[in-house]
Amino acid sequence: MSTEITTQKQNFSLAPKDLDEAMRFADMLAGSSIVPKDYIGKPGNCLVAIQWGMELGLQPMQAMQSIAVINGRPSLWGDAMLALVKAHPAFEWIKEECDGNVAICTIKRRGEPEVVQSFSMEEAKRAGLTGKQGPWTQYPKRMLQMRARGFALRDAFPDALRGVVSAEEARDTPAERDMGAAEVVSSRPAQAAAPAALPDYSQSAFADNLPKWSALMHSGAKTADQIIAIVSTKGVLSEAQKAQIRAAAQPKPAPAPEPEPEVIDAPEQKAQADDDGWLQDYEATEAQQ
């Protein structure tokens, strides 16, 4: 009997089995006063932390204590990150050193080369961390150690941490500012305003320009449709004017060939000349009588 009771105690867990249980559990935690202040009265934050914990392998209460919501994003405290990595089957060993000026973290994953990361006080100064009130002023050595550790753990075991950064690093990240309402830019080009109505194309200007357009079309520089498109930007062409432009583009008919002069053989020409001379002599004789 005692063995059965002991087994039941060991198997007892508050881990929710479905979404309904998770939501009721989150409401209960949010109403508690012994959870971190970021979760008090915020069942939504509790639910997110529980879900993150389940994905990382943490029980709900461990998740509530290990996951911090900083600048609206979940993060893990440095010791919780190290605990998750040490529980990973590929973990071999880790070595951390810090002399107060530079922190070095070396971590070994089974079957892979060592991963070494460091963080120095000079880097902290360049990042504007050392002048802040808080841990960087009170515990600078510890903060150097946490920053180097966070980099090394994430590089060596991204599958264990799932991209979650350390809370120490997240706390040093500037909070996101409200940039106001976003300007919605359509992927389609904005519709241009309708152009002002054009007047009818002047008939006198049409008559003056038609020979010029005809020359352009006959030279091959422009087609009838191109001429119509260009002229239409200056005035509205009537259908009759468009027809005249298209007609002017048609090739002109070739002129009819001149008739060739009649060619008479030389003997016939001489005989005709002799007859003409005889007739002239006869007419002159008759005139004298």
Spatial shape: elongated
Judged by helices, strands and strand pairing, the structural class is mainly alpha
Assembly state: single chain
Calculate the mean pLDDT score and round it.
80
Helix and strand element order: HHHHEEHEEEHHHHHHHHH
- Strand runs, count: 5
Q: What is the share of helical residues?
A: 40-55%
Major beta sheet summary:
3 strands, antiparallel
* End-to-end Cα distance: 182 Å
Summary?
The protein has 14 helices and five strands.
Written overview of the protein:
With 289 residues, the protein is mostly helical. It has helices spanning 2-11, 19-30, 43-56, 60-66, 78-86, 121-126, 135-138, 140-156, 158-161, 167-172, 203-219, 224-232, 239-249, 266-288; strands at residues 67-70, 73-76, 91-98, 102-109, 115-120. It folds into 3 domains: 13-70, no CATH class; 76-173, no CATH class; 203-249. Helices cover 52% and strands 10% of the residues. A hairpin with a 5-residue loop joins β4 (102-109) and β5 (115-120). The longest helix is centred in the C-terminal third of the chain and has 23 residues, at 266-288. It is elongated. The relative contact order is 0.07. Mean pLDDT is 80; it is low at 1-8.
